[in-house]
Design a protein that fits this description.
With about 525 residues, this protein is of the alpha/beta class. The protein contains 18 helices and twelve strands. Helix 4 packs antiparallel against helix 6 (about 145-200). The protein binds adenosine-5'-triphosphate.
């Protein structure tokens, strides 16, 4: 019968456990997904995945194991104590004093376990981070032959974890030793005081036997509570960061409701925009940028590496908010627009696009809210010069891809198709930096040519350009240096001015020669 009850209880707690872990993971994942991009600048992937994985599992132990056993033993202990006090007040009080000492040690031990658990979680997250980084950079590791170095980097965290576990074991030993000592003291005290009271005729031998049995029960309950409380404390220690992350307020972009524009014309204005990344609050990445782009205009942004070109488009995409100044789209301050509906009208192709582990068709459809047919997907792929190479893949548009299967240029073409499929009013293209990447140049140039010749679409295009042929296809060129716009105009005008742009062009011509 008891076995059956244990079975039912174990099953119920198992189910409760599973629901708890699932809910925690969902809530945590949702909370993380709704954070500002700047939050991810300060967190590592290994750390966050560790919180979602091991830490959530650890927290669930509270309900499945510890809480259940603590409650049972607390009830058992309380019952025994009442009975002991009824049996003999002085002996009962002596046992209570011993149990209180044990409880005090138990609290200190619990606190220690909580701290150690937190450290172990941190070290596990750091070890995960190292492993994740190494696996994602495996080609670099192999080419540079740094396998041993990476193993050492991983082992440092493992050693730190082992050090804490060693100290935890020592603390556990001390806890058990305290229990044994105090347990035997109770028996000695009971026999001494009990023996004297039997001699004095105040207690019977039967009462003393009962007393010994119940005091054993009480002290064992206290020990069990201590043991489970320590693992409960470990869970609490592990859960602190999980709950902190869960409690983070969602980004304002998800909570505030902006106005939805029925139609976007594509007029973009930067008014005196300055920007600092919160992780580097002393370095101004953009300084007093003023730029106005007309609907349908193609503007190339050029400049040395690190001059703030990508940051400028990141602000337009609202991945970050300007520290000073304002960005207007069709005359409306960008932060007053509904961010979701605004982004639906913007297409973005990053410098080194990455693909999801899904088929090519789904990768192109990714994030498209319109109801698109396969013909539309193929149309977008043709516009991006991707159709032919996709057809040459074993399963065509149904080929499962991940980040490693395709070349950089092929991934870029899929990303361009994805951006075009949205039929964006504003298209942002970030050309690959590598001077050798002629394929990227060809792709971007192709898009610009197609857009130019199309009579149906009229998009505003901002292209971060590195190569001459891309730049020449633009209506206007914006030259950036140290976070400021230093020159602006047409290719020929800027050449005549003989400033930074002319120098960049000469440098590129020398590199090609
Ligand atoms: N997330 C970030 N956190 C802190 N600083 C950053 C961040 N992203 C970029 N920066 C810094 O901002 C400056 C401008 O970077 P940005 O990427 O805008 O330059 P860029 O002109 O696009 O360079 P490239 O042509 O090499 O892509 C650089 O000094 C860079 O180190």
């Amino acid at each position: 019968m008891q076995v059956e009850i244990f079975g039912v209880r174990g099953c119920c707690f198992g189910i409760a456990n599973m629901i708890l872990v699932k809910r925690m993971r969902e809530t945590l994942y949702q909370s993380l997904l709704s954070q500002d991009i700047s939050f991810f600048d300060g967190e590592t992937v290994g750390d966050l995945t560790s919180r979602l994985g091991a830490d959530c599992q650890q927290v669930s132990r509270v309900i499945g194991n510890d809480l259940n056993l603590i409650l049972r033993n607390a009830l058992q202990g309380a019952g025994s104590l009442i009975y002991l006090l009824i049996l003999s007040l002085p002996l009962g009080l002596c046992t209570l004093a011993i149990c209180s000492t044990l409880s005090a040690i138990m609290l200190i031990y619990g606190q220690y376990q909580k701290k150690s658990a937190k450290l172990i979680q941190e070290y596990t997250a750091s070890a995960n981070e190292v492993a994740q980084e190494t696996f994602s950079l495996m080609r670099t590791v192999r080419v540079y032959g740094t396998e041993k170095q990476e193993l050492k980097r991983y082992s440092i965290w493992l050693e730190k974890m082992a050090g804490i576990s060693l100290r935890q074991s020592a603390a556990y030993g001390f806890w058990n030793w305290s229990f044994n000592t105090l347990y035997h003291s109770t028996q000695v005290i009971a026999v001494l005081i009990g023996g004297m009271s039997i001699l004095a005729g105040q207690t019977t031998a039967e009462q003393l036997t009962k007393f010994l049995l119940y005091s054993e029960w009480l002290i064992y309950s206290t020990w069990w509570i201590g043991d489970n409380l320590s693992s409960l404390m470990q869970s609490v220690g592990a859960s602190e960061k999980v709950f902190q992350l869960m409690d983070l307020p969602a980004s304002d972009q998800f909570t505030s409701k902006g106005s939805k524009l029925q139609r976007l014309l594509g007029c973009v204005e930067f008014h005196n925009v300055s920007f600092y990344y919160s992780s580097r609050p002393t370095v101004a990445v953009l300084r007093h940028v003023n730029l106005s782009v007309q609907p349908g205009e193609v503007v190339a942004i050029v400049g040395l590496s690190g001059s703030g070109k990508s940051t400028l488009v990141n602000l337009l995409l609202r991945l970050y908010e300007p520290t000073n100044g304002q960005i207007l789209v069709d005359g409306f301050p960008i932060q007053e627009l509904d961010v979701k509906s605004f982004r639906e009208k913007v297409g973005y192709v990053g410098q080194e696009p990455r693909l999801f582990r899904m088929d090519i068709s789904s990768n192109i459809r990714y994030g498209c809210t319109r109801n698109v047919k396969q013909e539309d997907v193929e149309w977008a792929a043709r516009q991006a010069y991707a159709h032919e190479f996709i057809l040459s893949l074993p399963d065509g548009y149904q080929t499962l891809v991940d980040d490693d299967l395709l070349s950089g240029g092929q991934k870029q073409r899929i990303a361009i198709a994805r951006a075009i499929l949205r039929d964006p009013t504003i298209l942002i293209l970030d050309e690959a930096t590598s001077a050798l990447d002629a394929e990227s140049e060809h792709n971007i140039k192709g898009v610009l040519r197609a857009e130019r010749s199309s009579s149906t679409t009229k998009r505003t295009i901002l292209v971060i350009a590195h190569r001459l042929s891309t730049i020449q296809a633009a209506d206007r060129i914006v030259v950036m240096d140290g976070g400021q716009i230093v020159e602006m105009g047409k290719h020929s005008e800027l050449l005549l001015r003989d400033g930074l742009y002319a120098r960049l062009i000469r440098r590129q011509a020398d590199a090609v020669a």
